[in-house]
Specification:
The protein is mainly beta and about 150 residues long. It contains one helix and eight strands, in the order αββββββββ. The chain has a five-stranded antiparallel sheet, covered by helices on one side. It has a three-stranded antiparallel sheet with strand order 2-1-3. The longest helix has 8 residues, at about 25-35. The chain is globular and about 45 Å long. It holds the Pfam family zf-ChsH2. Keywords: DNA-binding. This is DNA-binding protein.
């Protein structure tokens, strides 16, 4: 895991990620600002889940808790993006989107950007580690979690 200050991976002009109005994902975003990766776990049946939900997918309990996990995983799938999905990304491609699986957290999966050469060779199963990117000057403040090959 790295939280070394670095230039922002994404360009200016993209919408700032914020929790939904109902606050469901607020603990996740707050955790990122503290260099912590939080995913949900049910204390009744111990099922892990991500993205955030109000109830456990397995036992339907409403007591789902947020649990800190190591921001490490492995690439489950990936895509090299050549066509930008937002005007702010024009001329910035290609870039790499990865689906990262966290084996130590019930194999939950989360989407993110893979740092490094956008033309690098990618192998399914490659170990990756999280890199927290903070935007303290943004309004509202936010942080992102990107991924890089574990070294």
């Amino acid at each position: 895991m790295s939280d070394t200050p670095r230039a922002a991976y994404l360009p200016e002009g993209l919408p700032s990620p914020v929790p939904e109005n109902d606050g469901l994902s607020a603990p996740y975003w707050a955790g990122l600002q503290q260099n912590r990766l939080l995913v949900q776990r049910c204390p009744h049946c111990t099922t892990w889940q991500f993205g955030p939900e109000w109830l456990c997918h397995h036992c339907h309990s409403f007591d789902v808790e947020w649990t800190e996990v190591e921001p490490r995983g492995r690439i489950f799938s990936w895509e090299r993006i050549w066509s930008p999905s937002h005007d702010a990304l024009r001329g910035r491609g290609p870039y790499l989107a990865v689906l990262v699986e966290l084996p130590h957290a019930g194999h939950v999966r989360m989407v993110g950007n893979l740092l490094g050469d956008p033309l690098q060779t990618i192998t399914i199963g490659t170990d990756v580690e999280g890199v927290f990117e903070h935007h303290h000057d943004a309004v509202p403040r936010y942080s992102l979690l990107h991924w890089q090959a574990a070294g």
